[in-house]
Amino acid sequence: MKNFASLTQITIFSKIAEVGSLSAAARELHLTPSAVSKSLAQLEERLGVLLIKRSTRSLILTEHGRIILERANAIITDVENTLDVARQFGKPEGNLRITSSIAFGCKQASRVISKYLSVYPKVDANLSLDDRRVNLAEENYDVALRITSEVNSSYAARKLAEIRWVYCASPLYLSEHVPIKHPDDIASHACLVYPSMTKEGAWSFQNAEQAMVVKVKARLASNSSLALLEAALAGQGVACLPTYLVGEYIVSKQLQIVLPDYKSDIHHTLYAMYYRSKYANPLVRSFIDFLVSEFGEHPPWEKALELAQSSKKI
User: What are the strands, taking DSSP E only, across 179-267?
Assistant: First the structure.
């Protein structure tokens, strides 16, 4: 009788190769590191080849390991697709783990997750808000909502929306200071600065005709856009903030866009990031599809802004 490797051993090997660590694979699979190490050793013994070279700092696939991994992933995908067919007879259910930046999570992600849970009552969700870039594998998240100008090639990424930034201030602040008619006028104003939106201490402006940079004086600098929003509402200065955060305050006239003909020269996009292997799970797939349908070409916060601005012109 042939000494076949088990599906469990193949799955564990594939997970080790995916996350690059025995301990990370153990956490994601809810096993002990010793069980993961033993499973890998048994698989190598059964196959009669070394699959992974171990060192104190890293794990490296051997040539045999790369060949076996390709076949292992194909086997796992076939099994997941087979199970997926069975799952599709019912609605998604289970626990969905999501991570998001604090500002976007508070203002937008929590709202859309609530709508999703209303549609799928058998789903529970765990939303973790953190501005650091978490490791999906090590911390066992299903989906990361990230606003970035760069996509991590380790993950699959579904584009959800373009993120637009506007320069804004409270009507009180604007009434007490010199008018802002040109980007150069910003230099004489108190500014509320989000570090990643500056280039060497300057804000960038672009319209249909030109692009320019203006050195700004930071009245308050913070890596929290929520803190800058509160300062802007309190009349402390001019801020550069994303429309998903300030849209409702512009609609309610608590904030006012300055230099509406100019936009920031720094671009960001909202993505749903996940491991490709998890997309076969109907729970993950249905949530990402739901996000796409909710945000669409024009996300709701942009629609509200456009409606307010169009009614203002009438």
Answer: 190-193, 202-206, 211-215, 217-221, 238-242, 256-257
